[in-house]
Amino acid sequence: MGIRFSDLRNELKKIKDNGNDYDSKLMNLLGMSEDEYEGWLKKRNQGLGSIQNQKKGYLCKTWKNKPIKFRLWYLKKYIKQSGLCEYCKVPQKFIRDIYNRRDGWREGNKKTQDNKKGTRGWSLEIDRRKPKRNYTVQNCVLVCYPCNNAKSDVFAEEEFKKIREPITAVWAKKVANLKNRKKRKVLEFIKNTKKLKSDKTIKDILKLK
Question: Hey, which residues does 132 pair with through a beta bridge?
């Protein structure tokens, strides 16, 4: 089921959108240097390969038989969602600053419960809108670790959206408490991102105009 990182990178470069390749778009959206982006993309490739192995019984035939399509879907979806969690709208680009977990999801040397040894949390994960259905193009979105854990396989998308505001409120308050330079970067990102600028919860808490 595995594919080489170089294959994924080459496929990404072939995808054009308004004259820009997806590779450059992802790097800009993540706000990473080329070296940082290379590292992130390699980890994503490995991580999506792990998901395919773990969930292969639930993957649609297209993704199960052509794994590169699964990886490309993730990266294209990431751009479509503007690098935001579909539910609480937290930007992946700032998750490390917002949640202040430098060594993974842990407090000092004490690991928090079910944090997979601190390896989860820094990349948007894959969630099924309707948990009783398979992983398909139509049924999957990208979400943050807290939302993925909270929603689990218990709530459908529409049910969870009704209770997602407290999660958005928590991270928005954390943004308000960031140090000036980091706070300015997050606020600038929010003001330039339509999906965030129009979000009532974020506007109310951060008093954005």
Answer: none
pLDDT tens-digit profile of 26-40? 998 888 899 999 998
Long-range own/partner contacts, residues 195-200 (CB < 8 A, 24 or more apart) = 195/81, 195/82, 195/84, 195/89, 196/82, 196/84, 196/89, 196/91, 199/89, 199/168
User: What pLDDT, on the 0 to 100 scale, is given for residue 113?
Assistant: 47
Q: How far is CA 113 from the centre of its chain?
A: 21
Question: Which SS3 state, helix, strand or coil, does residue 104 take?
Answer: strand
Contact 106, 27 (CB under 8 A): no
pTM, entire model: 0.85
Structural domains in the chain, sorted by start: 1-80 (no CATH), 82-105+120-209 (3.30.40.220)
Q: How many CB atoms lie within 10 A of CB 196?
A: 23
Q: Which whole number is the average pLDDT over 128-149?
A: 91
Give just the sign of the alpha carbon dihedral 142, 148, 152, 154.
negative
